[in-house]
Predict the structure.
Amino acid sequence: MRRLNILILSLMCLMIWNQATKADFGTNWTAIFYNNTNFSGAPAANINGVNAINFNWPHVPIINGVPVNGVNEDNFSVRFTSTQNIAQGSYQFTVTYDEHVRVVIDGNVEFEDYVNDSIRTYSFSRALTAGQHSLQVELIDFTSQAVIQLQWNPVLSGPQLIAPSNGASMEDTTPTFSWSAVPTAVEYQIQIDNSNNFFSPEREATATNRQYTPITPLPLGSYYWRVRATNSAWSAVRQFTLELLRPRLNYFITSDVLITWNPISWAESYVVQISRNLAFTDLVNTIPSADIFVEYTLSNGTYYWRVRAVATDQTGKWSASELITVDMP
């Protein structure tokens, strides 16, 4: 049931992103089934006139409402082939699959992936000339249900990325991403990932304007990003790196934090406050100290601290607050 829900969610997302242009599943496909996972030997079944590749087979494969006789429930392979007449333009191809898939256009392998017992959706763009094009989709199913769907739709060119620049190095862990407009676009999708295949984006969001700023900081590291509109292909991919470019004060990579201050001549002791906010209304602790330092254990996060001197006959004012950042690997 969980995997069926994932498939339904994936297909709903595809419907939303294909509202601007009509998706095409192709026509007159030929499906050749093999009772093995390497397309070898005599075919177990050969079916002509398949009008779309859009299947979710929890058990024995079914086409046009009829079970495909002679084909295994698991450990089978199927090759769909067709020749489609396509107008000149840029197209976005979207494939949803489980488990091993390969998409071939005009003899060129455009996409291949293996996912173990889960459903995945991937999109890629391809510019095509006017005329007939050969399409081939191969699926290998090992266990559990088999899922395969292929569709494509004409799209405008993707937006031009503006900032960050390609190869940029930055300290700001909540950078603002910006890009150019796509005609008639009403919404954009941005993906940020530590891999340039974007199979599992670290961040994915939509925006109605032409920029996006993460709400929560990104961890330090190397990233890739891309953007598309509801009616466009993906943009080119850019890479950027988040790293420390200069020393940080009061930045700790260990949980044991040492806080020090200068002595006050009349002080008999000191009181230190550590807070989660600058107003000191969300205190972590209030710590008395007979020395001019305290050592305290903190978890990852941002904190503020202040100190004041104390004597029998007087209490000093609070010092200015100082920032502490704990960022343990």
Q: What stands out?
A: Residues 17 and 230 are 5 Å apart (CA to CA). The longest helix spans residues 2-17.
